Predict the 3D structure of the following.
Amino acid sequence: MSFKTIIEPFRIHSVAPIRMTTPEQRAGFIADAGYNVFSLRSDDVLIDLLTDSGTGAMSRNQWAAIQHGDESYAGSPSWEIFRDAVQNLFPFKHVIPTHQGRAAEKILFTALGGKGKFIPNNTHFDTTRANVEYSGAEAVDFVIAEGKDAANLHPFKGNMDVQALEDFIQKVGVANIPVVMMTITNNSGGGQPVSLANLHAVSDLCKKYGLPLFLDACRFAENAWFIREREAGQGDRDVIDIVREIASLADGMTMSAKKDPLGNIGGWLALNDDELAGVCRNLLILTEGFPTYGGLAGRDLEALAVGLTEIVSHDYLKYRIQSTAYLGNALLAGGIPVVQPIGGHAVYIDAKALLPHIPALQYPGQALAVELYKVGGIRGCEIGTVMFGKKPDGTEVPATMELVRLAIPRRTYTQSHIDYVIEVCLAVKANSEKLTGYRITKEPPALRHFTAIFEPIT
Ligand code: F0G
């Protein structure tokens, strides 16, 4: 017999309070924040779906591991435990610990980027793109066409368009492409997975041209679970085996340990090339730390090592993917357009479809994110023209999609929290015709979504 209720495969062990607020209070808080949800105090948020990054709950075994941390500057046993846990899943020769994923990106693209270089990816995440561009190189995205169509039901919308990638390699030349990246799952494209077949195809293409392939593997376990669920011939496999096969197709990886490794902080760069590893370690020492702790404390390394064993649990992944789909499917059933199929770590509301009367350059996603906060205290995040519209040359171009991401922190909210989110979203939809757009009154030169100040257009 199977039951439809998805139970969380854990009991609550330690709790953090949620402070209740009224719509009137929230209208004041968001105005004070310049209508930017990143500028809100988290105490003023009821359900925080801003990100799944570092916001999850650690297990009691992870907290116990924190006590086991050894804070020696060099050669700490905590480092060995961490390195072994990484290599157990991703057997790359060199593991370089960093404080976050973006630090790994900064090091990698400082070593490999630069003017005249191109970095292909299925879709660059915003920090990845920013680090590529900061180095002077150009970030180019080759996700399949289905991946840009919010309603398309393709099971692997994170896949790379292999033909387009090959055409590009031939056009700009192998010498100008220091590395090819694959983001699993494809966060900016809706948390959509990449198939094992596509990873093989990209890996074969890279080998054909002698190009290194690196994974941006933040949500590798969720991606592997989708492969197990959706790809022919994969259904009987252990997720660990799928992960190891994925690793075997690449030459290295960048990682944010704040996602699937179940940490509150952390990241790493891992790779096989000895010479490149040497350059990267020197950069690590400049800005992160000594190679056996990088940007992390020994206790963090220990917690991550435990997280890496917990994340590949089938019970956990089944709950994780089903509970995200529970939110997405309920929104769909209520007539709210969302990116389909539902992704792994988040539900992405299609603000362009929900608010067709707000033009892209008046930021429909921002309007929706602000309204979700005002109505229900829910903090999501615009992934659209605010995030991607500003080009390095200063021009502004509408993004391909106008999304609001409701990212689900791992092991943090219960089904009743999510039922509340569903109710709030339906209430916002009922009033959607009355929403208006926003203009930006102040913005920084890069990554403007974090700090821009907005004003409602009335
Ligand atoms: N790559 C991807 C695909 C990401 O989703 C992130 C972070 C990073 C790299 C950078 O990692 O934050 O540890 O420096 N994504 C978070 C998010 C911030 O909300 O999606 P980081």
The chain is about 40% helix and 10% strand. The pocket of F0G is lined by residues 51, 53, 100-102, 125, 127-128, 183, 187, 216, 218, 256, 258, 267, 407 (CB under 6 Å). The chain has a mean pLDDT of 96. Residues 314-333 form the longest helix (20 residues).
